[in-house]
Write a structure and sequence with these properties.
homotetramer; alpha/beta; Quinone Oxidoreductase, Chain A, domain 1; 2 domains; six-stranded parallel beta sheet; globular
Amino acid sequence: MKTYRFNAEEGLNSLICTETETPVPAAHEVLVRVRATSLNYRDLMLIENRYGQPARPGVIPLSDGAGEVVAVGAGVTRAKVGDRVAGTFFAGWIGGPFSRAAGATQRGSAEDGFLATHRVIGEESFVHIPDYLSYEEAATLPCAALTAWNTLTQGRGIRAGDTVLTLGTGGVSLFAVQLAKALGARVVSTTSSDKKGERLTALGADHVINYSAEPDWHKAVRRVTGGEGVDCVVEVVGAATLEKSLKSVAIGGDIGLIGGVGGGKGSLDLVALSQAIVTLRRIIVGSRVDFEAMNRALVVHKLHPVIDRVFPFADAPAAYRHLASAAHVGKIVIAHDN
Amino acid sequence: MKTYRFNAEEGLNSLICTETETPVPAAHEVLVRVRATSLNYRDLMLIENRYGQPARPGVIPLSDGAGEVVAVGAGVTRAKVGDRVAGTFFAGWIGGPFSRAAGATQRGSAEDGFLATHRVIGEESFVHIPDYLSYEEAATLPCAALTAWNTLTQGRGIRAGDTVLTLGTGGVSLFAVQLAKALGARVVSTTSSDKKGERLTALGADHVINYSAEPDWHKAVRRVTGGEGVDCVVEVVGAATLEKSLKSVAIGGDIGLIGGVGGGKGSLDLVALSQAIVTLRRIIVGSRVDFEAMNRALVVHKLHPVIDRVFPFADAPAAYRHLASAAHVGKIVIAHDN
Amino acid sequence: MKTYRFNAEEGLNSLICTETETPVPAAHEVLVRVRATSLNYRDLMLIENRYGQPARPGVIPLSDGAGEVVAVGAGVTRAKVGDRVAGTFFAGWIGGPFSRAAGATQRGSAEDGFLATHRVIGEESFVHIPDYLSYEEAATLPCAALTAWNTLTQGRGIRAGDTVLTLGTGGVSLFAVQLAKALGARVVSTTSSDKKGERLTALGADHVINYSAEPDWHKAVRRVTGGEGVDCVVEVVGAATLEKSLKSVAIGGDIGLIGGVGGGKGSLDLVALSQAIVTLRRIIVGSRVDFEAMNRALVVHKLHPVIDRVFPFADAPAAYRHLASAAHVGKIVIAHDN
Amino acid sequence: MKTYRFNAEEGLNSLICTETETPVPAAHEVLVRVRATSLNYRDLMLIENRYGQPARPGVIPLSDGAGEVVAVGAGVTRAKVGDRVAGTFFAGWIGGPFSRAAGATQRGSAEDGFLATHRVIGEESFVHIPDYLSYEEAATLPCAALTAWNTLTQGRGIRAGDTVLTLGTGGVSLFAVQLAKALGARVVSTTSSDKKGERLTALGADHVINYSAEPDWHKAVRRVTGGEGVDCVVEVVGAATLEKSLKSVAIGGDIGLIGGVGGGKGSLDLVALSQAIVTLRRIIVGSRVDFEAMNRALVVHKLHPVIDRVFPFADAPAAYRHLASAAHVGKIVIAHDN
């Protein structure tokens, strides 16, 4: 089998693929033939050594991978050979509330990720993927899609009649548009260009705001919501947008804080905070149970992830460089069979 | 103004229209020019004196009415002249949990209903109706639509990925099909004929089961759900269907018990109950706050109630007779301007 | 009857008592013989014209009052002569989510408060008070106690096994100690002196931290919670404490933001925010339905509010001055019969 | 090591203890030195072959056991040698909703239970037990205590101000009294004798009703609740009591249906059901995540399970006979060190 590993201190150049013997799964483990992985912005931060919690040296990158079970260890009942599965972002978060212990099992940083042709993983650390999705599509789900799903369904929970605000065209935001529509909500989306706006409209966004043309986009959000504001903001950008998100949110609304909140830099004016009647919730991807719930929604709505480009396994570094270029709309995928 | 009143002991023949002077609203009251009302099966039971809690003699019938505010009393801030409104089923249930006190304000039985050209009502006892709906459409909402909405949204709460089962083509069931789709669910519907089945499919039902052709319809429900069963049953019929509903429901599912549960007659085999891992919830229409939440969903999805037939105000008894004939699919409405 | 009114622009000196004829309640209104009122810090801010939303000139101050119904208008069913009641903080927030409309009915600023011997109020704008409480005790509940209750019971909701952090010995914090214990939680409280600490311990606090002795009190919070942190912070102070609260909260915990968040001044470091896995919820007192739920808890636990001092009605300005002195522990009450 | 096994078709006589070599845990498994087990009525039904799902022939009985980890397999992070643990009722239900797959891992029937000196179990299938509890006490928790906890905390969720009704002095009911008090509720308990009533009072019951003296005990429940009824019934007995429970429950209340609901025999009059505004929830013990939440509550309140009698490991059949005699109040425990 082939496996990529990296050392954050040495950056992308350290991302090297080596060949070793394919292992046999121990009890309560399965061997997965990885068919596809996808990249998140976090993966770029990790390899550039600017993520909050640095990656373990020599770790296999990429939290998001999907593949086929090709061998099972003793005592495994959750899967059999031939099952199509995707890994969970946290290998050890099955259900219930997030915990420090679960947090220590983040794949692609604390634990090995999926940028390999084969991976032995624990019997509780994957979900079955919907039949209608390709491996390449399924590989986009574990981090970005689940983050969007939990932002929308936890807390007050979005449902028919609510309005959701998404920011930009990153992976989480695109999933948020699709999932919010599946949940029956109205969607307002910001973006930097009319061309990207067309993509958002095609995905289901009811109102698109070009923030290049209207930098005070919170005013546009108020306008298209009849002055009320939105019930939920999928807040992915951070300090630069948080105050405008606070001005965009309806009374009793909800802001999901995703990722590092702008790298954790900057500050929030407390006037903006105290003038909004709002709940701010930190979103930490989600558990396996959440992933399974999302998959049920995907199946009913037959949603297809937006894939920007697929790179061959041998060109994995090129996938990182494409991500760094910020020229993409949708997920960047690596196909492991090519 | 003209007002219908009835005495349950004398039945439909006692439904008489009289003319009196139009009143002036007192403080905290509004005068509504009623434009339309709709009938529920409960109204038939009331006028035939076979409802659990008999109607107050001489009461104005019909809980469901919509119209225009034509005068407001002192201190009223929730509405102004010209506002389009619909009454709430319980005049005194604004928000929070149901209570005995709220229950004593049921319109069309304990309190006066809307079968009149004008009605003075309390300032807290109505909602504003969506612009896109006609008065005739809005008059169908207060009882049946809200019952369907609360069955779907309370308890575990249906959302994208869940499957809902509706029974037959009564008012609540048709709204349940429409609202379940708006909430992102998959819908399985039973009915007695293929022709009605086509109506259900057109409304959005994903699977229609003809229970005349398949009396053990719970087996068909299991079949179309891959053996899993449904996550929610909108149980409107009662004893005749409850055991099959229990056999249709998925592990962890929810059965909303609506109305008199088959007139409260019959019994439930405890084997069926204990074999289902289910929650049974009695549904009592809903509060004004619930009605407002539903209206937000209606607006986003622009749902139009299914209206079977509209009767003129002068022919109100004919509307009751049409309801009694059970030949309708959708709501029976009375237009007060005709 | 006698009524105090004030003009914020002229400060406390404008607080003048005048005598007018006692009014008769209109339809859907009740006349209350006010027996006691209590002060909140907000009342001081209002009369000193430094509250976010300035008070209407000539308004009757004090949102919090309790008394006896002495006359009822036509159509009133929620109360009868002789009933013991307390007003709701928002005259127009009965149940369901907070709204702009509800916010416009804040008593003692937008609408008249209770610093009068008699008040005519709407039939929906009060609760019945528990038998075991005196009028003076009941008058402390509408703002501070309900704020504490909703901080503890909404969002994730505190229950047996959780740990709650309270800050200081203001009205909300003292109620939070009592109510958190009633809900089965463990309580950690900060205070500035060992003497006040004894009061907190007597009220039920399990751990008291003297922040004068230990300015980095979040470290002490971590220590007494075995490193885990607390599940809920009743955050009453604002910018000065918010970052330490964020460092005190457990993974998945909840911070209730109360009042103006330090007058809305200052800023929050986003590093502190992004390092906490937390939900921040703005708390806006609560609805009548919430107040009724709290009263049920009070009755079961027979909690007695902590009253610092009772002033006679004629000395209302002295009560304000006592509040301004910040020398109190517990609520400052005005007895209207003296 | 010594292990008891049984064959349901042969009854209690088939419960035989044999000695075998102590196994070594495989990867992701731990070896537990079992220190104590406890019996539930279900265990008696299983060994008498009258449980709904018959036990696998030769299974090790008793779902409830506690002990010490004495060896860990490769890859185990949740426990280390020396940890004090108790098994979960369902070996495979970690968190999230109940499922058919989880149901197939019921210990003591589908999977091996704990009536052995040593047991190898999966790394996800246990909880750490509170320090303040002995192994004998901890062994009483997995089934009965967790069932009581989930009845009280799920659904609407009991909190300060609510009233809970418990029936009799079985294991679940006694835990329900203790836990309901810890949650801040008022407790009404029925029992057959004044002597048992004293035990209930000592545990915290606020009102005890002797149903021998007052067979229509639902009237007494109404009486002591001021006519309102209770907010939650912990319904353990079934058909014989369910109709009275329905008459005892407050509007909007909740009935937790536990166990076989009277063995699943009998029927429920739908008049009783339709007259109650109630939710009926089937309770299926609970997940590991639920167990961990309960343990946090136990720790704060230092609750001690009521133990009726402790039998030595060698006399396990005597423990079953004592259970069959129905003479006990509290849990029957087997100490494996004796």
